[in-house]
Design a protein that fits this description.
The chain is an alpha/beta fold and about 850 residues long. The protein contains nine helices and 46 strands. About 15% of the residues lie in helices and about 30% in strands.
């Protein structure tokens, strides 16, 4: 019997499969999905009936009076269109200058998103008690009620009073099982629960806050209660959430036939409807690639059947783009946002799109012919810039390297609109060469009262130089023993649209002959003091996203490892330097790292991953005898070895697969003295050692140098710890990689990750052959050394093939080498 979590995951996997990048559709080839097979006729829901309302009084109290002449407003936010793009402002009244009130009629059982705005010479947003921007507050309208909020401060008058925090755990009310990825908010602060259901909301001003726990896919009913925060104390909360059963809702819509057969999507406020819960480019939160694509029916209507949780409050709209671009509008030009409370039985919703247009400006047809060198599997996107670059939009394939996209709105005013083309939705990385990079202005079109048909050509793409396979020199390669790891590790950065391209990534890794794929799920350090460490949707994949990606890799018969990594606001060095690193801080740090390690141990176990990798080059200050980047002591606790051993022991209780420890290789400085390494099953050695003194060093000399390093330092490590050693290799395709210095243009050297997309440091030149030479030398050295248990290529760029400066081998001569070596090392090819 499938578990509930398994049913939800399977439904989401099937939903993603409908829109996978492998299904490239022409305008005349939109598939028709089979009708739902149910045991009873589905109920037909009224389409335009207003939902019942609940009168809600919002009472806001200020920490300090506002400047004279300013007023306060409550802003109801629309996350489907964009939080800043379609707000509804409601003025608030006050008698004493500190307490304000507004009464609104909200849809019954709606979960509304809102924040407070100070109106003066400009609109000034509120800040949280920890002086961060408030994305939104949540309120669940379960009936007529009052909700009381504390406004801590403003961007020009931040809060300076005492704070406390809320900590807690979210579990299934029936089974007691912990709930990951539950969105918990209070006082404008948000956190996502981890695999144990734990969450923390720090920096809250003193008083009672409305705490809301919200299921991002709607599969659990919304939880709401008051929580009182005291000075410098943790308020403990237990959330017991009720699971909601799933029903099948069929959305059927008739739309203007301006572009008959163009892909039509549903954009909505739930994860399965394209909401990322992240602050994306241009203030958007929805991504077209993650939205369900509707099927064109024989009668000209569109239809999609989606499994949705009973009782979920769904805000949705139909779109030819995303939640902002080319989404439906009302007859008067306003954004259209529909509402639905999911009923308790299978249902059918019949809707009609009135218009895609808004304003006086006429539609613009973008037609582009791309270079014949464009990889056949690529999809072409157009990115628009009305006030800043927004999220790229998938174009419509016409065949023969031609793509089109017709823009209807919102183009409300006459003026300039900037745009550019890119591959696989990776604008600023996989760009048209003429508009490449993060600072590009793009092409320009003047909006008009008459329709326009723009015909463009992309002659060259950035970072696509020569896709012809390189020349390989035959080598006598010895078959390694069973268990040898020939793997690829993905780049550690992440964007919410990357998961859409994971099937394509899996196929390209398979094509290299690899037998392992290493994913790099992540959490983000939001602050060093106070310590904030958890999931941030802008940079970190949700639990379900990671589980689906692992499932796709396992379905391709790849062994899977998880190498969880942190993200930092600036750099790891800055994070460690800014922490107080006193006894209390270190206790908090080890508590947070333990939660991090256990979270991904649970993910590895529940997703069926074969290995979990802990450690990393960023951890040196937290290891015994740790030092900071400048060489000064980190003041790590004296019992840090014991703490690390306890963490690994706890991880073992959650994950029974292989546990590897990642440590950086630095010539002459291998951390072989760490006794807790005895708890690991293998060493994942992060390798980027220079193999040449200058650029004129021959390949044979580099082979000799690699062999000496392996024999003199890696072999003793393997013998000392009694564990297999895998080389995790990061060699950028950049000038200077042979000698180990990627110049920063001054007197220093860049880290290899500084070349990850979309970074393009001008001080470094691309050198594809240099990367291939380094791999060639290392592979030849490994070939004759049986104590090396595996070789993994790090930094693989998932969404697109780029011949850039980064360590990704995708589409580069180094990939041809791996394609030749991997199958022979594994004995697949003789």
């Amino acid at each position: 019997m499938k578990t509930r979590a398994g049913q939800v995951a399977l439904a989401c996997i099937c939903l993603l499969a409908v829109g996978t990048s492998g299904c490239t559709l022409s305008l005349l080839q939109i598939p028709t999905l089979p009708a739902s097979s149910t045991s009873r006729p589905a109920a037909v829901l009224p389409t335009e009936a207003a939902l019942p309302k609940a009168q809600t009084a919002f009472i806001a109290r200020l920490a300090e009076p506002m400047p004279e002449g300013d007023s306060l407003a409550l802003a109801l936010l629309d996350e489907v269109t964009g939080l800043a793009l379609n707000p509804e402002l409601y003025p608030m009244a006050s008698a004493d200058g500190l307490t304000f009130k507004a009464t609104l009629a909200l849809p019954y059982r709606a979960v509304v998103k809102y924040r407070y705005i100070r109106l003066g010479t400009s609109q000034i947003p509120e800040l949280s008690g920890s002086r961060t921007n408030i994305r939104y507050r949540l309120y669940f309208a379960s009936g007529p009620a009052e909700v009381a909020d504390l406004i801590a401060g403003w961007s020009d008058a931040p809060y300076s009073g005492q704070t406390g925090s809320i900590q807690g755990r979210a579990v299934d009310a029936k089974t007691g099982a912990p709930l990951p990825s539950l969105l918990v908010t209070a006082g404008g602060y948000r956190a996502f629960s981890d695999s144990a259901g734990r969450f923390e909301l720090p920096g809250l001003p003193l008083g009672t806050h409305n705490l809301v726990a919200y299921s991002i896919d709607g599969t659990y009913e919304t939880f709401q209660q008051g929580a009182t925060v005291a000075p410098d104390l943790n308020t403990i909360v237990e959330i017991r959430a009720q699971a909601a059963p799933l029903v099948r809702v069929t959305f059927s819509v008739s739309a203007p036939n301006d572009v008959q057969g163009a892909p039509l999507r549903i954009a909505g406020n739930l994860l399965e409807l394209g909401n990322t819960f992240a602050d994306l480019q241009g203030g958007l939160s929805t991504v077209a690639d993650r939205m369900p694509v509707m099927a064109l029916q024989t009668d000209g209507t569109y239809s999609a059947t989606i499994s949705l949780p009973v009782g979920a409050y769904v805000q949705y709209k139909y779109t030819l783009g995303d939640g902002f671009w080319n989404a439906e509008h009302a007859a008067d030009g306003r954004f259209r946002l529909r509402e639905l409370i999911v009923p308790a039985q299978d249902s059918v919703v019949h809707d009609q799109v009135v218009t895609w247009r808004s304003g006086a400006s006429a539609p613009i047809l973008f037609e582009v012919t791309v270079s014949r060198d464009t990889p056949a599997e690529d999809l072409i996107y157009v990115q628009l810039n009305p006030f800043g670059w927004t999220e790229p939009l998938p174009m419509w394939p016409l065949g023969n390297n031609r793509w089109a996209y017709k823009l209807y709105g919102p183009v409300n005013t006459l003026g300039n609109l900037h745009y550019r083309y890119c591959r696989d939705g990776q604008c600023a990385s996989a760009d048209d060469l003429s508009t490449a990079g993060t600072a590009a202005q793009g092409r320009t079109v003047e909006t008009s009262l008459t329709e326009q048909d723009l015909k463009d050509t992309v002659s060259d793409w950035a970072w696509l130089q020569n896709l012809e396979p390189g020349t390989l020199v035959g080598t006598d390669i010895g078959r390694r023993t069973d268990g040898f790891v020939a793997g690829v590790e993905l780049q550690s950065s992440y964007r919410p649209n990357w998961s859409y391209y994971n099937p394509q990534t899996v196929q390209s890794v398979q094509a290299l002959g690899a037998n392992w794929l290493l994913f790099t799920p992540s959490w983000t350090f939001g602050s060093a003091s106070p310590l904030v460490f958890g999931l941030s949707p802008e940079h970190d994949p949700f639990w379900l996203d990671s589980a689906i990606m692992v499932s796709q890799a396992r379905a391709a018969n790849l062994s899977v490892g998880l190498f969880p990594v942190p993200h930092f606001a600036t750099s790891a060095a800055d994070f460690w330097a800014s922490g107080t690193r006193d006894a209390g801080w270190w206790q908090a740090w080890f508590d947070h790292y333990r939660a991090f390690a256990v979270n991904f141990a649970d993910l590895a176990a529940q997703s069926g991953s074969q290995a979990l990798i802990l450690g990393g080059d960023w951890l040196d200050p937290a290891l015994p005898g740790g030092t900071l980047a400048d060489g000064s002591p980190s003041h790590v606790p004296a019992d840090s070895e014991v703490r690390w051993q306890a963490i690994l022991t706890e991880v073992r209780l959650h994950f029974t697969g292989q546990l590897w420890w990642a440590m950086p290789y630095t010539p002459g400085r291998l951390q072989s003295s760490l006794s807790f390494l005895s708890s690991a099953d293998g060493i994942y050695l992060l390798w980027g050692a220079p193999l040449a003194v200058d650029s004129g060093t021959s390949t044979s000399d580099m082979v000799d140098q690699a062999g000496q390093l392996l024999d003199n330092e890696v072999a003793p490590l393997s013998s000392f710890v009694g564990k297999p050693v895998m080389l995790a290799v990061a060699y950028p395709s950049a000038a200077g990689v042979q000698a180990g210095c990627l110049t920063d243009g001054q007197v220093g050297c860049l880290d290899w990750t500084d070349l990850d997309q979309p970074n393009n440091p001008p001080s470094v030149n691309v050198d594809l052959q240099a990367q291939a030479d380094m791999y060639d030398a290392l592979l030849n050295a490994v070939n004759s050394r049986a104590y090396i248990a595996g070789l993994v290529s790090r930094g693989y760029y998932p969404p697109a093939l780029l011949q850039d400066k980064s360590a990704s081998v995708r589409g580069k001569p180094a990939a041809d080498l791996l394609w030749y070596w991997f199958p022979r090392l594994l004995g697949v090819v003789n």
